[in-house]
Specification:
5-stranded mixed β-sheet, 9 helices, 5 strands, about 40% helix
Amino acid sequence: MPISSAHRFTEGDLPVEAGRYRLVVSGFCPWCRRVLIARRLLGLSEAIPVSLSYGRGNDGFWELTDEHGEPGVDPVLGCQSVADVYATTPGYTPPPTIPALVDMTTKQVVMADSGALLEDLATAWKPLHAAGAPDLYPADRQLAIKGWDEWIGEHINNAHGFITHTDDEEKAQMAADKFMISLDVIDTILARATHMEPSREAALTLTDPPILASTLATGQFLCGDEPTGPDIRLFTTMQAYVHGDRHRYPGGAPSISFWPALARWFHALESRPGWVGPEERSALGI
């Protein structure tokens, strides 16, 4: 983490206030896309404006955009590099990461953990949600959601992040093997829940599956028949995998159609309103 203290809205040390914060993001980043999806689905786009990046600058860090959408100085933050955004944040240590939530009253980054931000927007920010906004962290499925969040983080998101950022081919292959088996597990659980023929059941004997509460909660989506937080966490990594990153895997990797139930889940979400915004379409080329 680039900041020494993890602030949380759910713990009351950050006030929920429309217009107070600005979110620094890039559509290229799966971790940023988690927060962008939640922000749209929950109707928080006006309450939390964004500053966008479309790539890396000369310093190797995310470069912001000017008033014309070109690489340059962000007109609100007055910064060109995300490193400058973090510069006045107490306890900051490089490298700077995104998403970064900036408190505009202090111009300091107060949150840099996408998972925590996703959960806080879905819970602590409820008073500002749009009418009819989905409940991404329903209270009656907390155990199942926590189980899925932790399992996806370890087996899917961390593995994918390692594969796409390491130069060690042997370790990348080991992580890729873990990733593929984990997709087999998810495909099997989704297939069972939706009455499809499970095609990858052997994977359940090769790795620890999610906790029983998570498995039992699975329906059309991971925790029932409507998407929740874990679906967002899995979706953005699968989005990266489907739209280019699988070609960066050692020896290549199969298309998502190799996992029929998972493919159905993915395409159902990709076609739902709010799940793919213009920032993501531009970044992913879709």
